[in-house]
Design goal:
By secondary structure, the protein is mainly alpha-helical. It is 81% helix and 0% strand. It has 2 domains: 3-134, no CATH class; 140-417, no CATH class. It has helices at 3-27, 41-59, 63-84, 92-109, 112-127, 129-138, 141-160, 174-197, 203-214, 216-229, 235-260, 262-287, 306-345, 347-361, 365-389, 392-417.
Length: 418
């Protein structure tokens, strides 16, 4: 495509982007009435087109002329805000205008996809204003603080960490290690938010399902204890919640391993499919009957506490050293045995160590077996928790469900080794 045609396309996209924002502002009533702002569909369309022309001028070598025009457009927006601020301090329209100008310049320069993405996200935020405000209103103080902590951990701390490695057995790689912490903390935080918004209003089964994204062992422990305190009528719903959490943990494992090392996830599919399907069948059975519940069990805590993140980093590194040493001394058999032991303590650390082992040695078969064995040992541990701490119908239903999932895991492992 010729430069002139490419420039015309950029200006056209900038104009259409401005028109899209302008239509939203016009339809939302912000361009008319006693509290009208300075711009509607026509002004936004013109701003977008003007910004696109400025971007094209900049790319053509006329940076000074482009800067003067852009300064005038931005000055118009700022003046409009100060004119309207005494009667209405809301500056959403003016900020949207500045974003439109910036996106238009980006389109005029030639970055069409980036410009379109900025306009699309801006329009979505404006259109979904009520939902965005409702979502923010439902965030508790813990969630807000956790989000800020995550931003600090990702944007501030990680760039300061050295790459490494330092020491034997593969060494310590601080930046990579912290990236693992952020990854798994982010998954857990997503589950925490989902539980905050949905789980508390839809019963123990859904609460367990969402809690499984964070920590299925924690859900099992909390629900087992609750079965001793609560009325026996909620024993079955609590049990189905435990099975749901354990079923969701398989999804967490598959997503995490796919991100860490895709061939490992592919090798895990035949080993985890059977217990996952057993869990799905039990969950569907639990969904068939409406339960009268009082969801008051607190199963989750904030997964982004800084101290917890540091402890996670230390644990991950210790496991990496342990697995490297075990493999060097005992080979593949030691790898599988370490998987069984680590499954009792931390499946996330097990996944990281096996993903790194698979990537380093070019084979995912034995690491996949080690992860599957670890998940089996973790399921048996949760079965012991449910049987030992639970009572009544909870113990029967949760025990049967977890035992069936463990049996399916054992069969899949035996079949896979044949």
């Amino acid at each position: 495509m010729a430069d002139s045609e490419f420039g015309i396309l950029g200006i056209l996209i900038a104009t259409l982007g401005g028109a899209a924002i302008g239509v939203e502002r016009e339809r939302s009533g912000h361009a008319s009435g006693p509290t009208a702002r300075f711009a509607g569909v026509r002004t936004f369309t013109l701003l977008g087109g003007l910004a696109g022309v400025c971007g094209w001028l900049w790319a053509s070598g006329s940076a000074a002329l482009s800067a003067v025009i852009l300064a005038g457009a931005a000055g118009l927006v700022v003046a409009a805000y100060f004119a309207a601020a005494p009667r209405d301090p809301d500056g959403t329209t003016e900020v949207a205008a500045l974003v439109t100008i910036a996106a238009g310049v980006v389109a005029g320069v030639g970055h069409l996809a980036l410009s379109s993405a900025v306009i699309a996200v801006t329009a979505l935020l404006l259109i979904e204003k009520s939902r965005v405000h409702a979502t923010v209103a439902r965030l508790d103080e813990t969630a807000v603080r956790a989000g800020i902590r995550f931003a600090v951990m990702a944007v501030v701390l990680m760039p300061l960490l050295p790459a490494g490695p330092y020491g034997p057995l593969g060494g310590v790689k601080p930046r990579e290690l912290w990236l693992f912490v952020l990854f798994f903390s982010g998954i857990s935080f997503a589950g925490y938010l989902a539980r905050l918004f949905v789980g508390a209003r839809h019963g123990y089964l859904i609460a367990g399902l969402l809690g499984g994204i964070v920590a299925s062992t924690g859900v099992t422990l909390a629900f087992s204890r609750a079965s001793r305190r609560e009325d026996q009528s909620v024993g079955r719903p609590l049990a189905y919640g435990v099975v749901a959490a354990c079923t969701m943990s398989f999804v967490r494992v598959m997503v995490a391993t796919a991100v860490l090392f895709l061939p490992l996830a592919a090798a895990l599919v035949p080993l985890l499919a059977a217990p996952f399907l057993v869990g799905v069948a039990v969950v569907l059975l639990g969904l068939r009957r409406p339960w009268q519940e009082r969801v008051e069990v607190q199963t989750l805590r904030n997964p982004l506490e800084f101290r917890a993140a540091l402890q996670m980093a230390v644990l991950f590194q210790a496991v990496l050293f342990l697995v490297a040493g075990v493999r060097a001394v005992w080979g593949d058999l030691g790898l599988v045995v370490s998987g069984a032991v680590l499954g009792l303590a931390n499946v996330d650390a097990l996944m990281i160590s096996m993903a790194k082992t698979a990537a380093a040695h070019g084979s995912a078969a034995t690491p996949a077996v080690a992860i599957a064995v670890g998940i089996l040992s973790n399921t048996l541990f949760k079965l012991a928790l449910a049987a030992g701490l639970g009572r009544g119908s909870f113990r029967i239903v949760a025990g049967a469900g977890l035992a069936a999932m463990a049996a399916a895991s054992a069969i899949a492992l035996s079949w896979g080794r044949l």
